[in-house]
Write a structure and sequence with these properties.
Elements lengths: L1 H20 L17 H4 L8 E8 L2 E5 L2 H9 L1 H4 L8 H7 L6 E8 L2 E5 L1 E2 L2 E2 H8 L1 H15 L3
Antiparallel strand pairs: 1-2, 3-4, 5-6
Length: about 150
């Protein structure tokens, strides 16, 4: 009986750890991923703010949507729509390995993925991203994010 209890406890701890390890360190400024902008709308090239009545959670992040159809699209395939690097500035993740807030209307869809950027005080990191080398920066950001997301 004691062995069974120990085994069940161990299974619970391993399973419980697996669940928490799956969460993403999302940028939740203003309480929502992408400051409450509808992540599906970016793929229509019309970023818009989500509404309080269309909300979903995924991997520890809360998302807002502009319509029921966008909410349903997200729920069917969230991995298609979630922003890269938790919704932090892609350029800052690549160049500095740092989590920097974004301007939700400064973005790029690249290879079917959503990348967001800082754009304030005369600094537009999307411009830097495009001027330097998006593919090389993406590789750096992917590598840096693996380390950042674990902390």
């Amino acid at each position: 009986m004691h062995q069974m209890k120990t085994l069940l406890t161990l299974a619970f701890l391993v399973f419980g750890y697996g669940i928490s390890a799956q969460n993403i360190d999302f940028n939740t400024k203003k309480g929502f991923v992408v400051e409450g902008f509808d992540v599906v709308s970016y793929f229509n090239n019309t970023p818009e703010k989500g509404k309080d009545k269309f909300v979903s959670t995924y991997k520890g992040g809360t998302f807002k949507f502009a319509s029921q159809s966008h909410l349903e699209a997200f729920n069917k395939n969230p991995e298609m729509y979630i922003p890269q690097y938790g919704g932090y500035c892609a350029y800052a993740i690549a160049a500095k390995g740092e989590k920097v807030s974004i301007d939700p209307e400064t973005y790029e869809i690249r290879d079917g993925k959503l990348y967001l950027f800082y754009n304030s005080w005369g600094i537009n990191t999307l411009k830097s991203w495009l001027d330097e080398s998006p593919e090389a920066l993406k590789l750096k950001a992917d590598k840096n994010w693996k380390h950042i997301d674990k902390h």
